[in-house]
Amino acid sequence: MDLDFTRAERDFRAEVRDWLARHVPERPPSMDTPEGFEAHRAWEALLASARLSAVSWPEEYGGRGASLVEWLIFEEEYWAAGAPGRVSQNGIFLLAPTLMAFGTEEQRRAWLPGMARADQVWAQAWSEPEAGSDLAALTSRAERADGGWRLYGQKTWSSRAAYASHGFGLFRTSGARHKGLTYVMFPLEDVAVRPVAQLDGLPGFAELFFDGVYVPDTMVIGEPGDGWRIAMAATSSERGLTLRSPGRFLATADRLVALARDADPALADRAARCWIDAEAYRLHTFHTARRITAGEEIGPASSMGKVFWSELDLRMHGLAMELLGERAGTTPWLDGFLFALAGPIYAGTNEIQRTIIAERVLGLPR
Amino acid sequence: MDLDFTRAERDFRAEVRDWLARHVPERPPSMDTPEGFEAHRAWEALLASARLSAVSWPEEYGGRGASLVEWLIFEEEYWAAGAPGRVSQNGIFLLAPTLMAFGTEEQRRAWLPGMARADQVWAQAWSEPEAGSDLAALTSRAERADGGWRLYGQKTWSSRAAYASHGFGLFRTSGARHKGLTYVMFPLEDVAVRPVAQLDGLPGFAELFFDGVYVPDTMVIGEPGDGWRIAMAATSSERGLTLRSPGRFLATADRLVALARDADPALADRAARCWIDAEAYRLHTFHTARRITAGEEIGPASSMGKVFWSELDLRMHGLAMELLGERAGTTPWLDGFLFALAGPIYAGTNEIQRTIIAERVLGLPR
Amino acid sequence: MDFAFTPDQLALAETVRDVLTEHCPASALRSERLPAWDRLAAVGFFGLLVPPEADGLGLCLVDALPALEETGRACLPGPVVETAVVAPYLLPGVPKLASGAVRVSVVPPGGAGAPDADLADLIVVAAPSTRGRDGGAVVVGREAARLRPLPGPDPCRRLSEVTYTESTPLDRPLAPALRAATVATAAQLIGVARRLLEVSVAYARSRRQFGAPIGSFQAVKHRLADVAVAVAFAAPLVHRAALAVEAAVPDAGLEVRAVPDVGRDVSAAKAAAGEAADLAARAALQTHGAIGYTEELDLRFWLARAWSLSAAYGGAAEHRARIREALAGGDLRRYP
Amino acid sequence: MDFAFTPDQLALAETVRDVLTEHCPASALRSERLPAWDRLAAVGFFGLLVPPEADGLGLCLVDALPALEETGRACLPGPVVETAVVAPYLLPGVPKLASGAVRVSVVPPGGAGAPDADLADLIVVAAPSTRGRDGGAVVVGREAARLRPLPGPDPCRRLSEVTYTESTPLDRPLAPALRAATVATAAQLIGVARRLLEVSVAYARSRRQFGAPIGSFQAVKHRLADVAVAVAFAAPLVHRAALAVEAAVPDAGLEVRAVPDVGRDVSAAKAAAGEAADLAARAALQTHGAIGYTEELDLRFWLARAWSLSAAYGGAAEHRARIREALAGGDLRRYP
């Protein structure tokens, strides 16, 4: 067991830090505004030009074949530098791992390089109005058509969909509950998109209405009917390493400690606890990365990470709200707080995660 | 709405305070030792001599007909004075209200005056090995015998039973679940008592084994088969006002604040929160007393009090453990901590209380 | 000792509730800046604490408390506490205050700005906070004030920084008015928390997932039960503080009642009410799930109000630090 | 970067676990003061950290960490950390240390007493704490020490106040040894927490109430899930601290590794492990219900150990105050 970075890892960190120091823009407008969306896309393209938008991908798709530890180093530097949020998040961290694991080589070549450059920006489309936490209750369907499928139904809580070019999600092709769901990519141009404004008034999500949108077979990932298994693998990666890297929380914790430095000791104490918890999340992730590299399955243990980071994030931003009081709105902390409030809900509510931990990690009865 | 004590209430407080200042003994041994039990009985008898052992009872039974507010004042003074724990607790605060509400005048005359003087000390006998939180699953039974009943079965978690003279509990006379339970008092002399040592090594509880113990009909409270309803009324009073009066927590909170005065501000802050919460419990209880006096039913809302005081008590003692570290065992705080740990469990676990609040106060579906 | 609201106090709240139900529905929060104000004025709401000699009812803060809670329950926009509670303490001689024709806003000591100052006729601006000491305040007319909007979470309680060219010094002590404002805000927070709980319970009863109403799941039940407990034990601290604010002043008719530390009681009320409302907000969001975040759902108004009022007149941590200091002083006597 | 225990480190723990399973069953906790010590000595446990020149294995703290966790898991009585971890730092020249023939106890700076001092041959007594400064220590032979038992919760880790007539000054710095002892104690706490969780899960699977195993109720599930999360995220802090304790010393073979603040990392480990164990103890009691309180159930030994080790070498609040101070100094660099 050791915790020392290799020479190569340290060199990589130095390169990333240096590049970011020279390129990170002033805070762009929210990616949920038209101009902010374009600014974030331009930033992704700039990142891609330095092969930094998806460092862990193979070079042929636009990455640089970085190790998991290097990816974690990249993330630490990225968030410490105050770089913008990732408008390509859904594609790079959710869809791409699915394409790597279950897609065809043609699909990877067709979509990954453009995703790395943000030529296409992807929206996820999991939830439906009557299937929020209960994904197996999905009713949107794909019907067989000549050389492809026609999509019908409604999706909701589709993040980025207000401005994205493409989307991906599960559609029912047969059967009930977990059976007969198919994993489909689709262009958003023929989908009716109704943006849904959030607490901050901006459309971070949208509802999608499908009325026979045609997609060719090449837009289906894996076998028809095998979507649940494929999506669960992606959800597991969503909950695990790739959704929320420690770098984000380390940067927040550093800023929080600075904010609390002259505060009441009772508040400074809570900040210290958050800072240590961010470290715990970082170390835990180094351990997870080691396990993944060694070929181990992480499986339901990733639910522990989801519970931990989402509640840490909310504690950190809630404490910042207390520290700032009525002045919170003049800082980025208010937006961060509103975003953090969603943490215990999305990517599987924390109640569901706790049940998964209890049943599948601890072995308690259903 | 007002919060000012009347002249009579203030006079009563002065009298109680004065008497306690002159009579409260040095801390006696634990009431779960033979000598401690006798010392606590002697103290109860001394209290009774000043008509202070059960102030709210009518005079004919040994009380002084004090109002609810006066009883609360008595409790504040009692615990602030550092007076001993009440070995007669089960009788005075659990059985007596049941006798007042459901007993006959003969039963009251037969048992209450002796209870006030601690001539008899009562053990409660609710739980059974397979019916801990789920009281309706009781299987101990009472079989009809000439002019009375014979008791069979096993009870557990019977507090005070190691040294008490009498007990009371529910026995099945017919039917299943909530139906056919009968509320019975019994002498402990013919019951096999197996003391159960607690974390502190002392027998705060016992198991009771009934092998045909005979009790006459006069030892049954209310109608045979009506025990569940009668017990629930008592349990409601157990959870409500009488089990844990605010006075106990106010005294603990005062001592905690004194203990934390020079402590790290983060700990002092937690002490301040506890102190305020003890005040909240006091004020809430004044309001409840007002409602009861006005003839209102408190009902399931008493579950809120149970959750609140038991968690407050545990927070207070846990904080004291942190403040004292390895020196906690040289103070009464360690025993208090071990006792407080039971708070969320007994008299209906806090999980059950939260479910009651959700279903019966808030109206959430079962 | 009679720690319950009187029928009169409850009847007043009932009247205010009826007015707000009719004239301040959730839809009004989207379209109006001052819904229901004229109607509230018509039932005398703004004159409750104004002395009789200025055409008010001369009631005590505690008399108005259930009604103030209703304004929180309804998420009533506008400088409610400042006009109905602060002004009668600081500006009792201003004509037409009792009739609701004059609106007042306040920048408290250390406060970031004045709520809804653009809707106010007069703005009380406190001197910068000097930790515990009453630094005094001035009154500024709307026309002499320059307002700079401060971004914040609450679209119906907008703060503005206030600078001014002309002002009049206030000749009354600020501290009692601020204590009353803090308690009144705590009462509003209780109202906000109660509404959030009701809405969450209603949603949990109707929303189904995994084949059952989500309110049948233990995790949801216990979370909402915790909110109910928090609100139930915060409310009496607020009610006590309202009595303490008045009882600290000797009353000719009664003996002097001993309030060992009014400021401590006020801070206890505000801290507890703010934390109960915050818990209610978190629970409401977690119960509603992602839909709770949408602009379409009315829930957001109450969430925002919980956050904005929690910070108003000092946050929970600030108030608890004051309590901590008071206790460190060694006086543990309680009121009552 | 390879943040996982090596096969050798895990094999060592496996050996210790096997020994303890056989020779330190729960029944031994009732009847023996030093169960399994001879067997542990026979497998070389007490020589792990002793230098090779004194017949030890000369391993690093991190090598012994999984084995130390096992001693917590088994609730092993006796001055384990003091003999196996502190002594090799402070008394490496004492003959027969590696063979386990010499037992050592310690009164840390500010500590109330020495654990199991009556079973020790040598007692290290630190000078009274001088906040952060190393005040030095003396070594006292058992026969020169007078012991006064201190009441406490843990029947298998009894503390004694130590006074003495003769002593020898220690010529080695105390601080590194105390840091190692603190980390080793944190590792034991992780072991205690894991065992408490296992026992609670097993009980929740078998105990039935309301017609179902209590482990099928969401409230029980979620509580135990929270314990699992707390333990999972405390453990890496403990592992990191073990590495930091050694990495703070430059290594000839490697470049000097930067550990910005060893003390901060050690405090983080102890605070997190203590709080995880405390949470596990609360959850275990709440899961077991009243039976958890009885002397008859073995659970009580682990509860007591969670409490006694949480307080040993500084409680969570004390350690967090140190972290807070370190952060207030402004150095936020991390190791690694």
Automatic annotation (TrEMBL), chains A, B:
GO terms for cellular component: plasma membrane. Residues 123-213 form the Acyl-CoA oxidase/dehydrogenase middle domain. Its cofactor is FAD. Residues 225-362 form the Acyl-CoA dehydrogenase/oxidase C-terminal domain. One of its GO terms (molecular function) is flavin adenine dinucleotide binding. It comes from the Bacteria. Coiled coil: none annotated. Residues 7-118 form the Acyl-CoA dehydrogenase/oxidase N-terminal domain. Keywords: FAD, Flavoprotein, Oxidoreductase. Gene3D superfamilies: Acyl-CoA dehydrogenase/oxidase, N-terminal domain, Butyryl-CoA Dehydrogenase, subunit A, domain 2, Butyryl-CoA Dehydrogenase, subunit A, domain 3. The keyword Hydrolase does not apply. Belongs to the acyl-CoA dehydrogenase family. This is Acyl-CoA dehydrogenase family protein. It comes from Nonomuraea rhodomycinica.
Automatic annotation (TrEMBL), chains C, D:
Its cofactor is FAD. InterPro entries: AcylCo_DH-like_C, AcylCo_DH/oxidase_C, AcylCoA_DH/ox_N, AcylCoA_DH/ox_N_sf, AcylCoA_DH/oxidase_NM_dom_sf. It comes from the Bacteria. The keyword Acetylation does not apply. Residues 183-323 form the Acyl-CoA dehydrogenase/oxidase C-terminal domain. Pfam families: Acyl-CoA_dh_1, Acyl-CoA_dh_N. GO terms for molecular function: acyl-CoA dehydrogenase activity; flavin adenine dinucleotide binding. Keywords: FAD, Flavoprotein, Oxidoreductase. Residues 6-89 form the Acyl-CoA dehydrogenase/oxidase N-terminal domain. Belongs to the acyl-CoA dehydrogenase family. This is Acyl-CoA/acyl-ACP dehydrogenase. It comes from Nonomuraea rhodomycinica.
